[in-house]
Amino acid sequence: HTGEAKYRCDDCGKLFTTSGNLKRHQLVHSGEKPYQCDYCGRSFSDPTSKMRHLETHDTDKEHKCPHCDKKFNQASNLKRHLRIHSGEKPYVCVHCQRQFADPGALQRHVRIHTGEKPCQCLICGKAFTQASSLIAHVRQHTGEKPYVCERCGKRFVQSSQLANHIRHHDNIRPH
Q: Are residues 39 and 18 in the same domain?
């Protein structure tokens, strides 16, 4: 085993050293999230993301933000959070110089300039720049509506739709 990256993703061209790593990576493009959190039900496309998420349920959070009540179990998560308070945005788009606090946000933004749409629907072939957009799109095919209004039971495809609906409840005043 030489560690040579010889397994190529047909969707984005990334290379991997094992077929297992390639298969895990391809879940990013399909929107499939088979790794579910036992505590809250949130799903993830890869086991590493699930493990990172599981740490958010860990009560042993020793890294406290000095500006608010948030606590973190990893210093790196606290460091990323502190950028909210400082306004620091160290990640800069080479195309338009827009700045970002998070490298993932920069990566997603750059797709606006490159036109890259790495997340493709396996049902109809439509492509998206972000996995979250693909997931919402796939729900149109499946009819899944996981976001439920606790007040009236109405269900929604996206959390933003539920949030808008709840605002509607809040704006209705009895006569």
A: yes
Question: Which residue segment(s) compose the domain that 66 sits in?
Answer: 59-88
Phi, psi of 159 (to 5 degrees): -65, -35
Per-residue pLDDT reduced to its tens digit, 83-123: 989 999 999 999 999 999 888 889 989 999 999 998 889 89
Structure tokens at 165: 């609906």
pLDDT per residue as tens digits for the range 38-77? 777 777 777 888 888 877 776 666 888 999 988 887 788 8
DSSP code string of 100-123: ESSHHHHHHHHHHHH----EE-TT
With contact defined as beta carbons under 8 Å apart, do 42 and 27 qualify? no
User: Is the same domain home to 4 and 49?
Assistant: yes
Give the Cα separation of 113 and 96 in Å (integer): 9
Could you tell me the CATH number of the domain that includes residue 134?
A: 3.30.160.60
Are residue 48 and residue 84 in the same domain, yes or no?
A: no
Beta bridge partners of 100: 91
Q: What is the DSSP letter of 90?
A: -
Q: What is the CA radius of gyration of the chain?
A: 20
